[in-house]
Amino acid sequence: MKWLIPPILFGISALVMAAVDRWWAVVRWVPEPWHWLGLAPLVLGLAVSGAGRLQFKKESANIWTFGQPNRLVTGGVFRLTRNPMYLGFILVLLGWAVFLGSLTPMAVWLVFVAACAFWYVPFEEARMAETFGDSFAAYRRTTRRWL
């Protein structure tokens, strides 16, 4: 399933969240106009994810999830979190769920969070440990996985 890179799963998740909110909404947990508060984590997530993407581009690092890492990126937003792009995606989808307003999209959000926490991140961190050894181990000791 190497085609299922994080941006694709992110897009699928956002669409499925909208669909389940439309057709299988269970409980309206964020009523209007409070649903607009979802824009705060959504915008923050876009900023965090974008900052990570820009840092990768700045350092000419391989961004392909299942590819071979070529640089240990520790600057910029990577000083605060080892996974800013995943954290950003998670925040965007959380904001989207709040904006949609029903509880059902949160189930899809949880699946996305689980895919990040138990599939993408462990895979990438194992590759980083193999490739960068002690440098990555030192980075892991000083920088949290999420926040």
Explain this structure to me?
The protein is mainly alpha-helical. It has a single domain, classed as Up-down Bundle (Four Helix Bundle (Hemerythrin (Met), subunit A)), CATH 1.20.120. The protein is built from four helices and no strands. It starts with 5 loop residues before the first helix and ends in a 5-residue tail after the last helix. About 30% of the residues are buried.
Number of helices: 4
CATH domain class = Mainly Alpha
Shape: elongated
Radius of gyration: 16 Å
Largest sheet: none
Uncertain spans, ≥5 residues at pLDDT below 50? Answer: none
CATH architecture label name: Up-down Bundle
Q: Helix-strand pattern, N to C?
A: HHHH
Give the DSSP E fraction (strand runs of 2 or more residues).
under 5%
The CATH topology is given as Four Helix Bundle (Hemerythrin (Met), subunit A)
Topology of helices and strands:
Layout: H1 6-23, H2 39-58, H3 84-100, H4 105-142
Helix pairs in contact: 1-3, 1-4, 2-3, 3-4
